[in-house]
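Weekly modeling sync, notes
Attendees: AB, CL, MP (scribe)

Item 1: holo prediction request
CL wants a bound-state model with adenosine-5'-diphosphate before deciding which constructs to order. AB pointed out that an apo prediction alone won't tell us much about the pocket. Agreed to run with the ligand included and paste results into these notes for async review.

Input as submitted:
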Amino acid sequence: MIDTRALELLRVIGENIAGKTGEEFFRHAVREIASALDATYAFASRFNHSEHSAKVIAYWAGDHYEPFDDYLLDGTPCALVSDGHVAVFRDNLGEQFPIDKEWFEKLGVKSYLAIPVRTEDGNVCGHLAVMAKDNRDWQEADLDILRLFSLRAAGELERGEWEARLERKNQEFSAANDRLRLEILDRLRIESDLADAKIAAEAANLAKSTFLGNMSHELRTPLNGILGYVQLLLRDPETTASQRESLEVMRRSGQHLHELINEVLDLTKIEAGRSELRPAVTQLFDHLGNVVDVARVRAQDAGLSFGYEREPQVPSVVNVDAKALRQVLINLIGNAIKFTPRGGAVSLRVGGSPVDRDHFRLELEVEDSGIGIPQADLQEIFEPFYRVTNSGHTSEGTGLGLAISRRLVKQMGGEITVNSRVAEGSCFKIDIIIECGTSACATAPTATPEFIIGYTGGRRRILIVDDDIVSRDLLAKLLSSLGFVCRVAADGAEAISIMSQVAFDLVVTDLEMPVLCGRELLLKARAQNFNMPILAISASTSMGDCGHAVAEGFSDFLVKPWDVDQLLRSIASGLGLIWQYRAAAPENWPAAQPTNHPVVKMRSEFTRLLYHHAMSGDVNALMEALNDAHSGAEAALADEIRRLAKGYDLRAVRNVLEPLLGESPSLLPIR
Ligand code: ADP
C-alpha cells in the first residue's frame, strides 16, 4: 500500500514529468525514481530481444547522469526482467551475479529492484531498475512506484519505437524523393534534348524541303527547254521518221525524269504533311487500263503472268484523284512483281458495290503468289522506311512506297489492308468510297495537238514574260507557228512597259522573275486596267494547284515542263479560241487516231508477239518480228504496222492489233 506521504510524493513527481517526452522523460523519471525509492542509482532501458541485450536510455548515478554502454543481459539481474519477471534482490548482489561483481563493488551496490516495462499487448520492451548501497527490504509500495512509472515508460518506449520507424520511413521517403527529383531532372534534360533534337530535325527537314523545292525548280527549267523543243520538233512536218524515233526516245526519257522529280517532291510534301488531293471526273477504265498496260509489261519482264479482272457493276466515270490512285496501284503492283519469283502470278481485281445513287464503294485488290510477309511484319510494313529484312529476298527499294500509299488512300477517305502468308503470297486491298460522275463531265478526248495548225478568227497577240531565255523563245516559236503575234519580255516591269504601248489578248508569264515577279505583274496590270487573261507558268510548285492561281486572279497555272496539249488547251480557254486542224497527217507523221482497218486474219501467236513488243515499247524487236509476216493480208497489215512503228506511234500499233487478239487484251497472259 502506498501511504499518504508516498502519494504526495508521486503527485509532485507526476507534475515534474508530465510535460516531458522521449529521452527527457526518462532522464527525469530515473532521477525521480531514485529519489522516491531512496536509492542511489536508477536506470531505464530498452531490450533488444534478438541480441539479448539492453540499451540504457537514462542512468542516474546518485548526483548526476552518466552515459551507459549497451550491455549483454546474460548473467545479470536484468536478464530475469527481460524474461518478464520482477527482480527483487535484497542483499549480496555481487555474490549472486559474479559477472558484475566487480562493478557492483565499485559502485558499492548491495540490493536491486526492477520491473519489466510492457507494451499494450503485454510484450516486455524494456525495464526500470534501482540499485541501493544498502541491504534493502524492498516493499510492495516500492514496486508500485516503479509500476506507476512503467506505464508512462511503456508509452514512451512505444512512441520512441514509432518515432524511430517514422524517422526511418521519412528517410526512405526523402531518399525516394531525392531519386525522383534526380529522375525528373534527368527526364527534363532528356525532354529538353529531345526538343532541341526536334527543332534541329525540323530545321533540317525544312532545309531539305527547301533544297528539294529549289532543286526541283532548277531541274524543271532546263527540262522545260528540252521537252518543249522536242515537242516543237515532233510537230515539224520536216522531221523525218528516224529523227522522230530519236525525238520520241528523248521525250520519253524527259518525261521519266519529270516523273522522278515529281516523286521526290511528293515525298517531301507527304513528309511535311502538305500533299493535297485533286479529285476530278475521271474515266476510270481508261485510267486503270493505262496502269494495267504498264503493269503487264513489267510483269512480263519479270517472267510473271498478269491478270486483270473488273466487275461489271463498277462505274466507268468517277470523281477521284487519278494521279494518286495510279501512284498507289503502281506501287502495290510494283511490290507484287518485285516480291514474286519468276513463274508466279500477279493480278489486279476491280470490284465493289454501290453505296447510294451517287457513291460507290470501290474495292481494288492486288494479289500475288510471291514470298509473302510474316505476320509480325504486317503492320510495320506501312511505316516509313520499314522493310522486311529476314525474308531471304533482297530487292531494291526505300521502304517508303507503302507509307506513301497508305497516306494517299487515307486522304481519299479509304483504307488499305493486307492479307499475307509466307511462301504463298500477299493480297493488298484498297477500299474507298468514291463519287460517281457522269460521262458528260469526263474530260473529252482532245484532238492530238500535233494536228493543230492554227485558229479561226483574227490574229491574236500574246506577250510572253520569262527571265529564262530558252523558255521564252520556245514559247514564242511554238505560238508563232500557230499564227499568234508574239512579243517577249524578260521581267514584269518590261512587260508592263510593253503593255502600255501595244494591246495584247493574252499574257503568259513566269512567276519567279527579277525586278517584278509574275504576281506583281498581275497586280500592276489589273491596277492599270489591263484586263486580258494572264496565264501563269512556273517551274516552282509553290503555287500549289491551279485553283490557287485562279483565286489569285490568273486565268490558269501550268507547271514547267509544260505539255503542248495542256498549254494549247489552256490558251484556247483563256482566249475562247477554236482551233484549226491539219486535214491529214503528212506521210511521215504518226497517226494520232486509231485507223479503221478491216479485221484481217493474222496468226494469233504472231499477233501476240507483235502486241507484246508494242506494249514493251521495243520498236526494234517489233520491226524485226514484222519481217516474219506471211505474204498476203498479213504482209499488208505488217506494212501498215511497220509504218506506224517507224513513226513510233505504238498506241496506233496497239489499236491495230487489239481487235485481232480475239479476247480482251488485258486478260491475255504474257509468257
Ligand atoms: P519498298 O518496296 O521500297 O521496300 P514499300 O513500303 O513499298 O517499300 O514496302 C515495304 C516492305 O514491305 C518491302 O520492303 C517488303 O519487305 C514488304 N512488302 C511489300 N509488298 C510486298 C509483297 N507484295 N510481298 C512481300 N513483301 C512485300
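Recorded for review: The pocket of adenosine-5'-diphosphate is lined by residues 331, 335-336, 339, 368, 370-373, 381, 386-388, 397-403, 426 (CB under 6 Å).
Action items: CL to compare against the apo run; MP to circulate these notes.
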